[in-house]
Amino acid sequence: MNSSRFCAVQVKLELGHRAQVRKKPTVEGFTHDWMVFVRGPEHSNIQHFVEKVVFHLHDSFPRPKRVCKDPPYKVEESGYAGFILPIEVYFKNKVRNAVLSISLHIPIKFFRFLL
């Protein structure tokens, strides 16, 4: 096999979340508004490399499987407790399927001390 036909591409991703305490809980009892995201560092464009990002929310959320095929790759919700949020990043790759699986812990109680 001729290795000169293959090349490697390094794609840097920034994964994060933020939460804000609501002034007043919702009727459902949600105390925080939060957002989770996958993006390029310094908001660089990653859409040429990323096919889609799948966020697997806790089963208590409506539509717990959220698929973002276009930027911004993010989910915004309200809640009252922390949970583990599995994230799958699917890359555009014609040679083989490339998927990055990540689990992000969203510790809602922690945010009370940050804000």
From TrEMBL:
Keyword Cell inner membrane included in the entry's annotation: no
Species of provenance: Naja naja
CDD domains, per the entry: YEATS_AF-9_like
UniProt keyword list: Nucleus
PANTHER family for the chain: AHD DOMAIN-CONTAINING PROTEIN, PROTEIN AF-9
Compartment list: Nucleus
Gene Ontology MF, one: chromatin binding
Pfam families per record: YEATS
Protein name in the entry: YEATS domain-containing protein
Family matches, as Gene3D superfamilies: YEATS domain
Keyword Endoplasmic reticulum: no
Domain YEATS: 3-115
GO-annotated biological processes: positive regulation of DNA-templated transcription
InterPro entries: YEAST_sf, YEATS_dom, YEATS_domain
